[in-house]
Structure formats: structure tokens, C-alpha cells
Batch of 2 targets.
Target 1
Amino acid sequence: MAKRKLTIGILAHVDAGKTTLCEGLLYAAGAIRKPGRVDHGDAHLDTHALEKKRGITIFSKQARFETERIAVDLLDSPGHVDFSTEAERILSVLDYAILVISGSEGVQAHTETLWKLLQSYDVPTFIFINKMDLPAADRERLMAALHGRIGEGCVDFSVQGSKEFLESIALIEESLLDELMETGGISNGSIAAAVRSGQLIPCFFGAALRMEGVDELIHGLEDYTQDWEYPPEFGARVFKISRDSQGNRLTHIKLTGGSLTVRDEVSYASRDRFMAEKVTKLRRYSGANFEQLDSASAGEVCAVAGLSATYPGQGLGFESDAASPILEPVFNYRISLPEGCDARIVLPRLKQLEEEDPALHIVWNEQLQEIHAQLMGEIQIEVLKSMIKERFDMDVQIGSGRIMYRETILAPVEGIGHFEPLRHYAEVHLLMEPLPQGSGLIIGSAVDQNELDINWQRLILTHLYEKTHLGVLTGSPITDMKITLVAGLASIKHTEGGDFRQATYRAVRQGLMRAESVLLEPYYSFDIELPLNQIGRAINDIRLMGGTFSSQTDDGEMAHISGSAPVSSMRDYSRILAAYTKGRGKLSCCVSHYARCKDESKIIEELGYDPEADIENTPDSVFCSHGAGVTIKWNRVEEFMHIDTELGLNPGSRGSSAPKPSDRLRSIDDRELENIMLREFGPIKRPEYGSRAGRANEVREEKPEICIPKKPELPDYLIVDGYNIIFAWEGLRALADSDMPAARKKLMDILANYFGYRKNEIVLVFDGYRVKGNAGERFNYHGVRVAYTRENETADAYIERLIAEIGRNYAVRVASSDGMIQLSSLRSGVLRMTASELEREVEGVDETLRKLMLELNSSRVRVKLDIPSQIDIEE
């Protein structure tokens, strides 16, 4: 009979003996010859130098053992609260979990957090109470604590077969009671089904260091687990990214369907594009050792080489991505680099660490010109510094952490976003409502698909999901809010996907600007153990911190207090507790929830966030007037909006002039769009092209004119993405295939000729991102400003920065067919043109110049045109 394949994770509060239990399981099953010890630094799974030095698990590890009936992929996870996000990442691939509890310390605050995570991920759980050889371990007290803080489903399996054991199980579920009454016993299959459903939680007692209770736990895994069924189609879940000693990127997955073989092609969507890559290696790890595999089948855990853009939580094949992590860091830290280090070069390297631990959220703060990371606590800071030194040979400094706040609203509000530069159109209306504490963000649509196309609705909802939307008090992420799409408007011909992105983002921000927002801060759930005679001091400290306590107990010598308090007040309390208890006091805490900030006004003033100055998260809208985009401030958008939802939440609504409710949600064609423009901004005065001074009254035969756009009142800038244009224009592309420098020179000549007629400012940007040692270059070519970006600087980044600098003071157009540059242009409210549109405009200029030269030749007049090539036309 084939062995049952199981993926089992081991989780615990720090110092509960989790790694020691892993060593015991591997030794008892014959997977290792000798069990290692954490204090000796020879544990089979704690292989990293940092783990050996600190005596704690920092990175999740895989090991494998087999018995006669089961083949187990064992995943060991960190126990320290600072690395709890690492522990959470393995939960999505587990069949079962073993929750380890210290018999001397009992159920801790972090133990409860882990239990809630296991419930959230619906993972059937076994409990192993370790260190029962210590004097403080009391079985009855521990079972009472388990019943009170974990659940009534906890049953002591160390007395299997006894009458009390069977009766305890029978009380879990009615069918088990019926089976006991009818047969006088309960089968292993029925018990296994109750375990898998989460109703029954088997509890085993032992001392892993002495190998006591380990065999009983293994027999429990054999008897009370079930086979999992997997479909024949390929599916897998990514739970970890790592790099081996040679720097090879490894994607750790659990196969949830089909099989995977070396050289198989895996198609998947990365965070920004669709990928199709071949598997180059398959490995099965056990600690630091691994074996090469030719193939892996459903139910197995393996590491895959060859996939370059995967991320933890990602679904491959038929699997969808996992939900967003529940645990998140609550501190933001500034990373100071050594003198002489270029932050823009270091940032991509640090991003490798973020791949392996997405909770780091390593970002470049453009405003402060700093690198920031999000961390859970002091231990993780030291580990991060050590990893940067080991991996990149850099000694960085990490500043004091800033609390990660959240924001929410107190009353419903409607947010409106309109985005309508020339040839673009979208309008979005969102109903934003407050939700109870801990609800997070709930996003949905109340729009009938017959009124607004379902594809547009999905796109709007995607844009709501894809971005971390920031509040307007401190620029902190929003939470505990329901956002519902209630209205939308599109143009049949002019609306593109990026238009709804801009309208959606602006709608969220406009609604937040109009709403009454409040600041939330993170709270710790804590357990304090201290001498009984000092309980009064602790209770007084908790009250001064703005915290509360829910329970307090004592055993005659030591007191136990449980409760919650703001992270900002309690973050350093462990040192204070140790000082006044002379080392006898213990504090265990973990982030539990967000609640109203106690010092809201003070925090807002200290952070000094200006929502209207945050151009990346603007609340303003863009409307079209006289053929150009015009920015309308957020507090006047209601005066210009094209639809009215009649929700009664907009005091500036236009009342009777608004469209009827039945007309709210629809797509509009060009004629309707023109009517809207006429109603809102008056008739558009269109320039007449082609007339020349001194010949205005001359009667001429009407011929089609090549329309060269009239220069706007503001200075006109044209920013050109050089390589994109070269590879988009057929003639230049053919030349580039054989001689790229010649193609660049040809494009500069074309634009110089265009500049000579138009007299606008032209910036031509070439990407030097991959040129080693390139310091960048700027020069003037016959009036055209040419820029080569430096190494590790993309043309996208240079153009986006240039737009931010000149977009408000000049009429800017960006010529590129690159999607990212186009979206950047849209976000900044400047005009964009595709490569083909620029080519047609250049051809129009050439045609106009040819006509002028023909006319001048026919009149036998010598004219010297003001163009860079200084062409002389003579008789």
C-alpha cells in the first residue's frame, strides 16, 4: 500500500522546544543518525550561522522522514514573534500542523496568535506539550488553559483507549457519540475525520529532549491523519523564495495537482507581466542537504530552479494566489548606507531580500531620498543587518523605528474621480463606508453589468485591490472600510484601461479628503508574569500606557496578567519589567489589532503630512477644456462631474441639471462627449491651419491640409523615448538591425528638422541602464536636447522624473509606445502620443516643408529656411 503523503508544519512560541521536537521526530523515524541540539549549535534544521549564534530559528526549513505508513515533508518555522510573518507563509501549503507549547510556561500570547492563524488557514492541528519533565509543568493546569484559550476540542491523547478518553471525544460531535453508544468504541477513521474537520485537537505530552512522547506523536500522525486527493492537472503553491550558496534563485513549492518534471515549461503571471519559463532543476531539501529529483508529484514539497519572478503566496497552474498575509510589520525603519554607496544601485540588491521576505517592504522614499524597510522588532533588525553584511558586504545602520499607523473614516462618503486629458476619458464614483474594527478593506460593486460593461467594472475593482491606498491624515494605509463602485462612465472610443486606473485612484483620495478620518495605532496583546508582590506596579503601568487587562491569576508566588496596550507605549516595556523585577518578570506580546490612536493630534502634527502635496496620490481630477487637460481641485470636482449618483453625500451636486438615474452608468460616444464639453466649458475654438501671412485674402483651391498642432500658450515640450521610437518606426528599425549608432543619429536628424519648423523644446532620451560604468551624458544636437541615462537608471525613471519637474509649468507631450511610460504620463496628467502618432506628425511637417519649397521655387525667390541643415533654395 502506498504511503500517505503529508506536509506538516511545526509552530511554537519561542523557546517552547520546537526545533528539539523536529530533531526528535527525524531521529525516531530514522532520518538522521543523531538528534542535534540548539544549545550545541548542531541542530539538523538550524543551519544558518545566525541561527546557530542566536539559538533560535530564523528561516523556515524543510526536512523529510518516512515511517511504514506515512511520508512526511516537515516544515520547521521560526518561533520568535519578530519572524512570525515567516511562519505564516508556510501555512497555505500545510496538510496538518503541530503546535508546540512549553509545559512550564503554558499558553502564551504568541501561542494564541499562532492558533488564530491556523484557524484562519483552516489547518487541522495536533498539539504537543513539551518540557513536561520540568517541575513547573502541571498537566491538569495545562489542559484547563488549553480548554479556556484554545478550545473545548482539545483532548488528552496520552490516555488513549480509556473510558474518559472515549467520552471526551464523543462530546465533540454528535455522530461520534452515536458511534460510541452503538459500538462501545470510536474508530480511528472517525477520529481522523474529526481532526481533519478541526473539531478535535489531539494533545500529546512529552519531553522532546529526552525523546519522551515523540513515538506516541508519530503513531498519532499515522492513526489520525487522512489522505488528501489531488487533481491530475498541474497546480502548485509557492511558499518561499531563497538562494543557494551559489546564488541560484530557488522557488519552494508544494504541488497540489499533477506532476512537475525537469525541463517542463511553467507559465505564470508575475507581478507585472506574463512569464513562461523552463524548470532547470528540482530539489528535495532536508536541512542544508538536498537530493536532485527528475520529477515531483502532487502532495510533495520541492525547490524549483529556473523561475525568475515568482513570489510567496503565488499560485501556479490551476491554483489562485493566496490571500494577503494576516500578520504585518508595525514598524518602519530608515536604512542608512555606508558613505559612497549609491542608494539606487543598492536598492535592487536589497530587493532580493524582499523577494525572500515580502513583509520587509523595502522601498525608496523619493521625497526623503531614503531607503525604508518594515520590520517586526529589534531581533529582526540585527538579523537584517547581518544578512546585508553577509550577502552584499555592506555595513548599514538602521534608525529607530516609526510606528506604522492606519487610517479609517467615521461616516459614509462618496468619492469621485474624473480623468480626461485629450483622447482619454473615465469617471468613477465610489461609496466609502466605515466597518467595525479588524474588518480590513472590503471591495465590491453595486452596478448592473447592463449599465456599465462588466469588463470596466472588473478593471475598476482590480485597481482598488492592486494599490495600497493612503489616508490623508498621515499618509498611512487605510483599513476597516467598505468601498463600493456605485457609478462609472466611459467613452466608447477614447477610454483605455489606464484611464480607469487614474479615475479610481483619484476617487478614493477625493472621498478621503471629504470624509472625517481618524488615525489608528497598533495594539499588543500581552502576557506578563511577575512576582505577586509587584502586581500593583504592573497594573498601574498598564493603565498609564492606555492599556487594559482582561484577566489576572496567581499561584501564590507568581502573578499572570493578560490584556492589550498600544505598541507605542509597550514596545520598550520588557526592559522596564526586567529592571524592577530584577529579571524575574517575563513579557510576551504580539500585535493583535488596530484601534483609535490616543494622541492623534500630536502624531498628525509630528508627521506633517500634506495630502495635496502628494502628487503620487492626488485627490484632484483632470477634465478636458478646449482640447487640453485641466486639473480641477478635489473640493470642486462635484461642480464639474458628468454624472450624479443622487446618494445625498455630495453637497456640491448639481441637482436638477444632473442626468437621470437611468443615465448614470453607461458608455458615451464622441458626439455625447462633445456635448458634455460644450455644456461644461463652452464652445471650443479650433485653430485654422495652413494660412500664411500676406496671403490670407488670396482665393485658393481648397485642398486637404496637413494639420500641424498650434503651439500652446505655455512653452511646449516634447519628450521622446529614443529606443522605443527607433524600434517602432520601420525605417529606423531596419537601420538599427545593422548599425544602431546610425539609427540614433538618423532619429536625431529627423527631430532636429522637426524642431526647426516647430520651434518647440525636444528632449530625446536614450536608455543606458545596462551599460556598465556609464555615468550618463547630456548634449545639444542642433536644438534637440539629448540625454543618455546612467547605469541602472531606466529611461522610464528619467522621463517620469522630468515630467514631475516640468509638467506643471509647461505643455508636455511624451512620445512612446511603452506601456509603463504611457501610464506614468497619464498619472501625471500630461499628454501622451504613440510612436505612430509622432511619425505621422513628423511626416506632416516634412510634407508642409516640401510644399513650401515648391511654392518658393515656383516664384523663383531665394529663401533661407531656419532649419538646422540650412538648406538654400535658389533659382
Note: The chain has 25 helices and 42 strands.
Target 2
Amino acid sequence: MNVNAYIKSLVLYGKKQGLLEKDDMIYARNQLLERLHLDEYVEPEETELILTGDGEAAGDSLETILKGLCDYAVQAGLLQDDTVTQRDLFDTKLMNCLMPRPCEVIRRFDGLCDGTAEGAEAATDYFYKLSRDSDYIRRYRVKKDLRWKTETPYGALDITINLSKPEKDPRDIAAAKMMKQSGYPKCLLCIDNVGYAGRSNHPARDNHRIIPLVLDGEDWGFQYSPYVYYNEHCIVFNQKHVPMKISDATFRRLFDFVQRFPHYILGSNADLPIVGGSILTHDHFQGGNYAFPMAKAGIEQKFEVPDGFEGVWAGIVKWPLSVLRISGMDPEKICRLASKVLAAWRVYTDEAAFVLAETDGEPHNTITPIARCRDGVYELDLVLRNNITTEEHPMGVYHPHAKLHHIKKENIGLIEVMGLAVLPARLKAEMADLEALILKAESTEAAVAAVRADAALSKHADWTAEWLPEAAAKGLADAAHLGETIRQEIGKVFCEVLEDAGVYKCTKEGRAAFARFLATVGFEAK
């Protein structure tokens, strides 16, 4: 297919998806010619065009069109190297030729967001569609993620193996090392990313748009995650590059957002290493239009709230982490009560429960908060966190323990806290190889021995030895069932990961220790 056909196909895609109006099409075509270093355009035959599919198929059509244009760019010497990173940098520039300016996006969003719940939903629908159609969210990569559910004593957990982030090519790594170090933008969350062309060590954001918001009197921004770990996965970030900090203002900001967008939940990672997220240097929240497993978990024990908070209810959630749910009709009261809990937890020590507020001046206690509105009732889940380490658990006492690291060793951040596992891409190949190795073996003993002898899979050997004999006895280790058995066993490991992250365990002693803390704030068990 000739390059002109790809150019016209991309312009027609933009028109069909609402990125362009009819009067924009010649302008967009000429912008694409400039990006491709072309001076002329010849109208292609209709039979040469790639027609945009409907619904999710639109993403597949776009992938084909952009691949064709990137192939041309490689042949024409327009790319430094033929790598995924260089193609991403280039095709994002092409997509920006179809994009509205930031002010137009903001004006459209604000026009839809008329102060009603329906208007708020229409506004986010528009913005999410734009983020997908613009290829800021690469649908054809996101759909490769593996997803399933695993039933546990706490309800069904969501398990994902993330395949959306392409692995770095060695050539890109080498190029990044040779580049002059830049402090602009300061991080991936800074507002300066809007329209930024990117480089070998920083993703292209030509097609990136944000919506400005005011939360608790401060300027924040609203965008979607390009990797969408769940439906309408959004990021709300401070427009200033300031570090994560859980404070009274955090709770007010969360509810400012939830009151404006009641169909979305919003939460914050904790503000300390080990129990925080991957970016602690820039204050931000994450949310979206998704019912997480933790939100579906019920109250295990109800508590009377302290005096002065009439109309507010509280209880411990039946969840592997230590969660206090505060709910009511008045967000301001909920925020004030949450502030009391935060202040008390920051300085709380209970040596019998191995809860130490600090050691050698280093603070350990913090909170992961999540706000939502459910059937007109506001809820705030306060997840108690502690990042203390010991010789036995150098990565954290309340962090996945070493025996689980073959599946998950990364920090347990906000998304995992709520019951959605984001597992490393390596597991896809490892689980396929594990399945093949087991099926080839003549017995469970031989299978475990083979796994132990395999350099890449040996880290899974002890775990395999735990579940394989029982699975085989139940007839769940044959070719028809083994893949699903392995997935469910991974889900069970994630459940253990969450249990390790819980400060107060789901035992009689753990719940008694949890209640001791709550009593210091004025809560009384019913």
C-alpha cells in the first residue's frame, strides 16, 4: 500500500472518531505530509484504504494504519532506530495532527460538566473516548493484558498480568544513556507533559490532554492513565511538583472530586516508601469508574463513632488489609473524623502488635485513603499502613514476604490494596513454560524436580510442590485444566500478598489489636 493511502486512512479515521470535522481534513493531511517529510500528495484509490472499524475494532484499524506509516518512516530514514520506542515517539507526532488544542478539549469537557451527575458522566465519557481515539491509550496493547478472578475468603479478587508497557529495546536503553540528562518535565505526572514530544528516556505526550480542576482551593489536573489497569483508570495530580503527603487536605480533595464526579472513586497511595506507590515525588491520586473488590467487601465489626460525629457510621471491613470504613451523608464530617484517625495513627505504637510509629526518628505509620459515593452515601476507606523493616523482612514486615516474591515483590500500592493485582509481564511466559513442563512429566514428583532444575522456573518450585499434588489428585492438572489451575493458584498467592500487607491480621488477636487502636480515637465496638 502506498503512503498516500495510509495518510488518507488516518484522516478518515480522525473524521469518523470525531477528532476532526470536515473542514479540518485538508489541514490534517498537510500536517501529516510535513511530519513525513513529503511535499506532494496523490489521491489514492478507494480500494487501497484501510476503513476504520466500529467500536473496539477502531483500535485495530488504527494500529494497522500507524504501523504502515511507521514502516514508511523507517524506509525513509526518519527514525533513529526501528524500535518500539522510536515508533511510539513518531506515531504520537502523527496522531497530534488530528488532535484538538488543549483549550478546545477543556471547553468541551466543561460544557458537558453542567453540575449534574449526568453531565459529569457525559464529560468523562467524552474525555475517555478522546484519550482512546487519540491513541494516548493504546487499545491494541491494553487488550493483550491477561485478566481473571479468583475466589477467596474475602470475595473475588481481580488478577491481571500487565502486558501494555512495551519492553525496552537494548538500542533504546543505550540511546537513553547517551542522552544529556534533562529535568524537563520533572516527572511523568507534571503538567508540562501536555504536548511534549518525548525522547528515548521519556514517553511522547504530543497527544496528551488534561482537564484542570480546583480541589480544596488548589490547582490540580485530571487525566487518564495510558495503561488503564481497569475501566476509566484516571489520575488526578497536583499542578505543582510537590511530594506525596497524606494530610487533612487529602481527604477534602478526594471528596471535592467525588462530589463533582460521583460515578468515580478516587484514592491516594500512601506517602512513605515500601507502602507507597511507584511515584512518591509528585502528589497525585488514582480513581475511575470501577467497582473494586474491596468496595464490595462488607463490614465485619461495627463501631460507635466519637462524640460530635452524629450521622456518621464506621466499621472494620472484612478485608486482608486493615481497613476502617467511615460513611455518612456529610463529607465534611467524614473528613474531620478521618483527620482524627490519621493524627492518632501517625503517632500510635503498640509493641505487642508490632506497630511502631517510628524507629530512630524514621516515621512508619501512614494511611491509604479511598473515597466513593454509593447510592447517595459517601464512604471513606482508611487503610492503615506501616513500613517498618527487620532483618527477617528487609523489604518490609507488612510487605509481600520473600516466599511470595516469585509472583509479586513490588510495593503494594493503592490499586493492589483495593484488590486488583497488577502482576509483571514475565509471568505470562513463565506460566506457559511451567504448564508445558508439568504436562511433560510422568508424575508430580518428576514435575516438581523438573521445575527445580529449570534456571528460569526454579523460583516457582516450592510453590508448585505445594499445590500440584492436590490438583493432580482432583484431576485438575491435565491439559484441559492445568492452565486455569495455575491462574487460580496465582490468585491465591495474591491473597497471601494482601494478608502480608495487613498490619492487623484477620485473627481474634489481630482484630482485638485493631480495636485497641480505634479506642484511642474514641471508637467503641458495638
Note: Residues 482-501 form the longest helix (20 residues).
